[in-house]
Amino acid sequence: ASALHGTSPTQFDYIHVEGMEDGRYYQFDNKGIAIPQTDPPVRLLPGWIVLTSDDGTASLRAPFGSILLQPKSILAIGKMPADAPSLYLVTGSANFVVDKDFHGKLIVSTPVSIYELSSPGEIFVTSDLSELVFSLGGKLSASNTITRQTTHITEFNYLNMADPLIHEKPISRQTYDRMS
After folding, report:
1. Where are the alpha helices (DSSP H) in 36-151?
2. What is the pLDDT of residue 173?
3. Where are the beta strands (DSSP E) in 99-154?
4. Res 8: pLDDT
5. What is the pLDDT of residue 130?
6. Are strands 86-91 and 106-109 parallel, antiparallel or unpaired?
């Protein structure tokens, strides 16, 4: 079971953080001004940032699916066209889920890589020690922006982006259960 499967579809047609959990996450506009959460939730626009605290997480919903931003993470909102939304994981870790009703590709960039999830599925990206991407379902391509190498990662495999051989490895059942 995924970290985000089973969540109900959002009643809002824009990307936003769910919940009013003060101190667990912060959202900033494109000028760096902290924006408090409201009801209905604040629409996150291109250039805005969501930052989680040392022990907090943030659950985001968007027309393409959902995101679970892990503690000590920074996510920047990129362009949000309906068929190819883009996000930038500056640091930390996050689960990205593309719903079965979404027809397009989700683009997730990091300081080292660009990931494209072009079918329903889930990826987990982390840059805590080294940059790793886990394919928990779906059609995923990974491009290293330094070496310009691109590879496709099959479901239930992971890739260390620092591996010069671009050798994917299987995800153990224990690892999958811990991440999802």
Report:
1. none
2. 66
3. 106-109, 113-117, 121-126, 132-135, 140-144, 150-153
4. 44
5. 82
6. parallel
* 93-98 β-sheet, strand order: 16-18, 58-62, 65-69, 93-98, 121-126, 132-135, 157-160, 169-170
**Given the structure tokens 């671009």, which residue do they identify?**
166
Nearest to 110 by CA among 85, 136, 74, 156: 74
Top pLDDT among 125 and 129 is at 125
Q: For residues 66 and 16, give the distance between their C-alpha atoms in angstroms, rounded to a whole number.
A: 10
pTM: 0.88
Structure tokens at 104: 């397009």
**What is the Cα Rg of the chain in Å?**
15
Only one residue has tokens 């996450």, namely 25
How many other CB atoms sit within 10 Å of the CB of residue 169? 12
54: closest CA among 33, 66, 40, 71? 71
Q: What is the pLDDT of residues 52-93, one digit of tens each?
A: 999 999 999 999 999 999 999 999 999 999 999 999 999 999
Please tell me the distance from the alpha carbon of residue 22 to that of residue 13, in angstroms, as a whole number: 23
Position of tokens 């080294």?
Answer: 130
Number of C-alpha atoms within 13 angstroms, CB side, residue 167? 3
